[in-house]
Amino acid sequence: MSEVHRIQEERIVLRSMIYNEEHIEVAERIISADDFIYKPNGGIFLAILELKNLELPIEHNAILQKAKTYKFSESDLLEVLSITGVANIETYSHNIKEYSLKRKLMKLATQINEDYMFDKSSSEIIGMLESEIYNITTTKESSEFKVAQEVVTKTMLYIEDMKKKGNLTLIGIDTGFRDLNKQTTGFGEGDLIIVAARPAMGKTTLVLNMAQRALDTGKGVAFFSLEMPSEQLMLRMLAAKTKISLQNLRIGDLQDGELSMLSKAADEMSKAPLFIDDNSSLTINDLKSKLKRLKTKHPEVSIAIVDYLQLMISSDNKDRHQQVSDISRGLKTLARELKMPIIALSQLNRSLESRSDRRPMLSDLRESGAIEQDADIILFVYREAVYKAKDAKEREEALKKAGEFEKAKAVQQEQIQDNEEAEIIIGKQRNGPTGTIKLQFHKRFSKFEDIALDVREPHININTELIDMPSI
Fold it and tell me: In whole angstroms, what is the distance from residue 46 CA to residue 229 CA?
């Protein structure tokens, strides 16, 4: 079919959209403005969508008022209106999309020349191709600039939608924790969330608990574990889900009732949309390729977790600071591209332990200031009991050396407790307040939980001074 006939098909679709509002929804579901081979037709398409969103009449004069904004002329519109007959809107829309995909793939093929092939590594070429093909097959209209009127319209529609939902405090992915949801409104599309702590504070446990909540609410989870085998992750998730001691699960020391609970939990987990990659040598290009393929095959995947950022490797010879910067920026752009939150765990500098107050702060983020810059939310996990246990162990050893074994035993007994208070410090939140939230940490079964509501003792300390407008 010639290009002239393709343009004629586009006009048929547009004419059908103008005279039948139901056809607008069909076409919008299949095609976007950049699928039109004749760009003014794409402009008319956008004008029709804007009028529909504003609930305004879709007729000649109303569409023509958008001509300057969307770059089409009155003669372009008259060509559309002069079409006669009734179109099979779905078939014609699929024809437009099919030809658009072929044009984009042909353009991509011409971009790969011999010089490019030899200048880049094979992993970079594969990553680029997969990224471009993913973009071609999944993205909608992405014009270089969005005019103010279009942005305002979408913003007002967003506000109206939130109002209809009753001013909900939870908009994004449920974190699993009452007060964290309240302060963050959940993890939003395109957010990069950094969960940072010193070793043994429980950052992996925290994100596993978040992953479990996402699964419980019907969301799919992709977990990239560079530090721990998938079986160990599942042990922790089962311990938290059943509230059976993690140590007992590891050695198989289970009572009949516990075995029954474990069997039920294992059956539920086996059916969950949880996907774990425990390859310990993962590059940012590998992660991008794997997550895009997974998202294409399993669109229910709504959140990704990387444990942890500093263990990712780089294929180039840049210094480590720059490598971590590239990884951080890559995760942020991937989150925006896939329109899903990505949680990345991060280590903190050892120097914080020399301070009298060892609570983390942004300057403690290890190896790169880019992490702070790229992140939308930074959460620090802090448990004072970890340091108290370390100090007690040193006192116990000193007492043993001095021969005071009874005192050493007493110090040891003081540290035996299952439940501890934990602090989740919101060190940065691009679209909301910072502050501290307290949780209960159950060591035996690897689980963080909300502290029971108690009006006598508030457990949220929030700084509300720095609040930006929410992203849309």
Answer: 49
Q: Which residues pair with 186 in a beta bridge?
A: none
Rounded Cα–Cα distance for residues 430 and 277 (Å) = 29
Rounded to 5 degrees, what angle do the CA atoms 100, 104, 108 make? 170
Percent of the chain residues topping a pLDDT of 70: 77
Domain-ending residue, one of 122, 156, 190: 156
Measured CA to CA in angstroms, residue 450 lies from 170, 402, 438, 442 at distances of 16, 42, 8, 11
**How confident is the model over 215-239, as pLDDT tens digits?**
999 999 999 999 889 899 999 999 9
Residue span of the structural domain in which 38 resides: 3-156
Give yes or no: residues 425 and 325 share one domain: yes
Q: What region, left, alpha or beta, does residue 435 occupy, with left being phi > 0 and alpha being psi -120 to 50 degrees?
A: left
Nearest of 184, 211, 209, 185 to residue 301 by alpha carbon: 211
Overall pTM > 0.70: no
Asked if 84 and 216 sit in the same domain, the reply is: no
